[in-house]
Design brief:
116 residues, mainly alpha, 0% strand, flat
């Protein structure tokens, strides 16, 4: 596998661990909603790894940034819709979760653009 992909996977693992650590700290402070939104965000790093892995399998080489970003667009479209619906219904808990997930995606896309 391409060295860039390995570095990217390591970065995903580090980010996930950092987010889960923050979620645990919030949980200890009994800030459950914030902790749960960060747990949802942490799952995005695993989803990203799966999307990237599928792209690698398809091409048998390191995927290009544009291909990865397009794949994330397909994955995140329902999350963006869910965020808009949550805002329309004043569902602050759901808004917090969807915004956390999308912030992880923004961070991942920035990393992809800088590394690939």
């Amino acid at each position: 596998m391409d060295e860039k992909i390995n570095i990217f996977y390591e970065w995903l693992d580090e980010r996930k661990a950092a987010v889960l650590s923050e979620a645990a700290a919030l949980s200890k402070d009994e800030r459950t909603d914030e902790s749960n939104s960060l747990k949802a965000k942490a799952n995005i790093y695993d989803i990203c790894r799966a999307v990237c892995g599928a792209a690698v399998k398809q091409t048998q080489e390191a995927p290009k940034a544009d291909a990865l970003i397009a794949a994330f667009g397909r994955v995140t479209a329902p999350w963006k819709l869910s965020l808009e619906q949550a805002k329309a219904h004043d569902d602050s808990r759901k808004v917090m979760i969807e915004e956390a997930k999308l912030s992880a995606v923004d961070e991942i896309i920035a990393m992809i653009r800088s590394e690939f």
